[in-house]
Structure formats: structure tokens, C-alpha cells
Amino acid sequence: MRIVIVGAGVAGCVMARRLARLGDVEVVCLERVSRDDHSEAGTGLNVGPNAVKALNAIDPELAARITEASYIWRNWRISLTDGTVLFDLPLANVADGPGWRIRWSELYRVLREAAGDCVSYGCEITEISRDAGDPTKTSISWGRDGNAHRLDGIDLLIAADGRYSRIRRAISGEPAVRQTGVAIFRLLVPDTSNGLIDDYEQWFNGPNRLLSFRVPPGHIYIAGTFPIAPDELIAECSKTPDALRAAYTPRSAPPSAQARWLIDTIGANATETHWARMQEHELLYRAAGCNVLYLGDAAHGMVPTLGQGATQALEDAANAAMLITQRYRSGSRNVESWLADVETLRKDRMRFVMEFSLDATDTMLEGADPVKGTAHKNEVSFQNRLKALYRDVGLPLDGNVELRRHAQ
Ligand SMILES: Cc1cc2nc3c(=O)[nH]c(=O)nc-3n(C[C@H](O)[C@H](O)[C@H](O)COP(=O)(O)OP(=O)(O)OC[C@H]3O[C@@H](n4cnc5c(N)ncnc54)[C@H](O)[C@@H]3O)c2cc1C
Fold first, then answer.
1. CA of 162 to the centre of ligand 1 (A)
2. Which end of the chain is more exposed for a tag (fewer CB within 10 A), N or C?
3. SS3 386
4. Statement: 2-70+105-177+281-366 belongs to CATH 3.50.50.60
């Protein structure tokens, strides 16, 4: 049996490492960048307790290696930029364990080391198609070091090639995108906060929101958002140091010490900020009539409000790797049925995560009242949804696919 994984990012590395243990299966993972190129990953990630739980269940050694490269995420606090605290939640109240705070480049380093030799780096995919002899299988061509390569008769192609998945576009077409109406910038800076910034926190000034936490070694991650018209690009004039200061400086009270440090740091590093618009894209786990599995950002795009992008890439990979391993070891070679089971296992869960992430963005939209909106986050209904998010990771531990429906 031949399995090809495209992308050695978050989901791809976990899949490659696990599936390489299947024994007599040929597992090839093709990655575009060179092994140590983490240039697209210059930011910090908060990875949810659900990913830690899922990864621990299938690969505790890998989870331990990530823990070593992380700080523990234990608490979530929301304040106004004048220092008024609105929400202060120990994750232990809603999760079975903590999350991680890690540099994205460190996460890639740990995962790529753990994935080992089945990853080929520096591969430029030139063609992806259904196999000429058997349309349920696929063929892929790529170039590496000036040489052309091709594999035909691929029994399972796993697209773990991220947000702009070339595999998904080639096999299943362009996913529909929905803009949310929120601009977001990100920044990673050396920690000069003298202890002001540590665990995961957010600060509101009207609907404009800052988010920050400390990551090893010695850095602070900052993200800022503000509302924009959903169908408009982010105006250049809103990216200047003065505009950013104005967006987060409270009008009727001085900023708290934390907010002051954040506002000064953003102002001083405005040229280093990376900008995006919050958006979602259509959910799809498998191709029609062809053995292609989409995982992570290739399968779904969600707004980043609950920090579930990399988190769900890990949860996807943990579930898919466990399910495929179980099916393979029990003698099943029916790849189509594996993919149907992965989809059954993940689809409702992911709909819930995407919907919840969007609902939690309510305080960041034009005209939002963060005080009222955050008060709602202290209510039982919101905290029950958080419990479902952080605890209900859906692993097929008993070998049967169980459909989990999530109460709102
Ligand atoms: C600035 C920023 C901050 C974020 N913060 C958070 C956060 O705090 N918490 C969180 O959970 N998520 C966060 N996310 C989202 C998270 O990073 C992604 O959801 C996650 O990396 C998706 O994992 P993946 O495995 O699907 O894809 P990726 O990790 O993007 O990996 C895709 C891999 O495929 C490779 N690739 C792409 N195209 C090809 C090709 N044609 N051929 C070969 N290889 C290819 C890429 O080089 C890459 O290695 C953030 C994202 C951004 C941009």
C-alpha cells in the first residue's frame, strides 16, 4: 500500500510519524520548504487543551517533546485596556489539562524532527491528478534538486498542505471563503515587559482587541484586531503607529501598565506587523470518488478567535492516524471506507468548532459592546461549550466510529 502526504506542517508531521509505523506501507511525505525553513512561521501559537489531550492519547512521546518546547497555558483573562478585569478563567475549570504556548517555528522544529526520514524537503509539486488506470487513486509529480519525480497508483493521498492547499484545489476545486469583518495583525517581539505579560490574556478598547502571551525562548506574541467592512481590504492608514496607538488607547482613563507596554511595543514595531482578514473557508474532509483526505487548514478554515487552527490540525491528525491504524491493523484495506469513517468522526465536531469560533468573535465586530459580550462568556452556556471544545476530542479509542453531536 502507498500513502503520500503533502505538507510537513502540523497535521502532516503527526500523520507521517504515525503512519510510518504501519510496517509494510510505503509512506512518503513531500514538503515544499527546506527542513530548517520556518520563515512562514514567525509567530506564537496558543494550542488548546483539546490538542494536548488528543496528541497525548496517540503519541505521548511527541506530546512530551512539544511540552518541553512550550510554556504551559493555564489561564485565560479578559480585561479592558484601562485594566478592568471582565473574565478570569483557569482552564482547569473547563478542560482536562492545560494547553501550550509555543513559537510556531519551534512547533515545526519539534514535529519535523519527530517525523524523521519519511519527509522529503524542498519538493515542488508540478502535477496532481486522478490515476489514469484507477480514478479512486491519484498520481503526483514533483521536482527536487533539479530532478523530476513521479508516483502513480497512490492508495491514499493526504492533503496536509495548509490554507492554500494545492491538492484541494486540483482535486475538489476552490473552497468558498466567507469574510468576517475583522482585521488582524500579529507580532513577535523580545520580552522587555519585565513580567507584565505571561499567560494568555486579551484587552478590549471598544471592539478593538489586543491579545498577548509569553513564549519560550524570551519572546512575547501580540495580536491586535479591529472591525472593518467585510468586503473591504485593510486600509494602509489604519496600520501606522499613530493609528494603532489610537485604536487601543482608552479615552476616559489611562491605560493599565500591561496595555501601555503593549501599545508602546506595537507603535515601535508597526513595520514588523503581519496583517490578515479574519475569514472562514468551507469544510471538506474527503474528495468525491477519489481517495484523498483533507486535514487541518486544507480541510477547514476558521476564524482564529479561540486559537483552534493548529489545535484542530493536531486533533484531526490524532483522530485520522488512530482510525487508519486501527482499520489497517484489523485487516481492512478499504481506503474509501476509512475516509468515510474519518469524515463521520470529524465533520460535526468541526462544524461545532467553526461555529463556536465565529460566535466567540461577537465582541470584535463593528458596534460590539465587549463588556456585555464578555459577561456572556461567564455564563454556564458559554462555559459548557468551552468544556465541549476542550474535552470532547472524539478519538476512536474503542475502534468504533462514534458520532458526537454537540449541544449548543
Ligand atoms: C499568524 C498566525 C497565528 C496563528 N495563531 C494560532 C494560534 O494561536 N493557535 C492555533 O491553534 N492556530 C493558530 N494559527 C493557525 C495555525 O497556524 C494553522 O491552522 C496550522 O498551522 C494549520 O496546520 P496544517 O497542518 O493544516 O498546515 P500548516 O501548518 O500550514 O502546514 C502546511 C505545510 O504544507 C506545506 N506546503 C504547502 N503547500 C505545499 C505544496 N504545494 N507542496 C508541498 N508542501 C506544501 C507548507 O510549507 C507547510 O509546511 C495561526 C496562524 C497564523 C497565520
1. 5
2. C
3. helix
4. yes
